[in-house]
Write a structure and sequence with these properties.
The protein is α+β, with helices and mostly antiparallel strands. The protein is built from 18 helices and 14 strands.
Length: 443
Amino acid sequence: MTSTAQPSRRSLLALALSAPLAGTVLAACGDSGPAGSSGGGATIWILTGQPGEGIRTDSVDAFNTANENSKLALSSYQNDAFKAKIRTAIGANQSPTIIWTWGGGGLRDYVKNGQVEDLTSFFADNAALKDKLFTSAFGAATVDDKVYAVPCENVSPIVMFYNKRLFEKVGAQLPTTWDEVMALVPKFNAAGVAPFSLGGQSRWTNMMWLEFLYDRIGGAELFQSIYAGTPDAWSNPDSIAALKAVQDLVRANGFITGFASITADSNADQALLYTDKAAMMLHGAWTYGSMKSDGGDFVTGGHLAWSTFPTVTGGKGDPTDTVGNPSSYYALSSKASDEAKTAAKKYFAEGLVTDATTKAWVESGSVPIVNGSDSMFKGSEDEEWLQFVYDTASGATSFQQSWDQALSPTQAETLLDNIEKLFGLAITPEEFAKNMNASITAS
């Protein structure tokens, strides 16, 4: 799960490409707390923040209108309030019927404690729904080969962004390999431009570099072995090679001076890119919207370019692999009444992913995890960008979930702490691996 120190944009799965969730705890439909789990009607808790909140609310309202006898009672919560409230509710066996989850490590804990329903048979009975959704979205919903959550809403891969003005200034081409990236570093430094912007104080921004380098060097199987808890997985030679590669970039002054004191939540890292202080930035797809709104003509004037992460010569990773946030997810409480479970499954099958919700996500500037939704991009001023995100997500051989969401909360905090030290050159790759191997043993 995302670090509580930096919870806003990425942890919220980029609900509006740029809009962080904010606000106070809200209650709707007369429901102000856990209900419907051990008895009574079905309940659903959603996250606040527009446009996501409006799309979710409209979806539930449309379902309730069409299903007078199986309505969902809806409550809305700001992100941090939801995290605190859901922990308390699940611990007391009083969770909502439909549980918002980020999948990955948090979902695995729910499964381990018997708190959510196995939905494998539900998807067997609703094959059309499963076929409608990106295959890549199901990885973070799956535990021990069983599906425990319904993927929904939109997708946000991590993207390499480029300032075309600065590339033209130094007469350089966009890099396609890691060697080309490293060759650009001294060229931009000589021109008085930071090669890469980085909000390093946020820590999870640093993590994105390792996610891609682990994949490009060791392949998707490398992190899978870590996720599976394989002893000493962090000491794999490919793991050490990836750790060394990122420290090579730090030592070469690849990042903006003072990156460790720059926060992502303030969007300062994005500003460095669109104000020509940095030539490149590795960041989430959700930053496109804020760079468009805050960066003058940087986006609308055609000065922003983007690509997937460069390949590493001799690496085992598939160039189509990506990392980031493959989806949002809803799980079904195992403690709910049969009546409530029936209503929830009906909503999953008929109300969660509809033509109306798909259209609404596209109109919000997001890419839904729905196969064929790119047909709705035509005519949008962001058509090229939306198509890139769609192709990246739908065509990924592996879509690796952000590590601090894929791992357990305890492991995730250990990871972020050690990544901060790694980027600060306070520990060696071998020390990083040793510390992280210990977290596997302790988990």
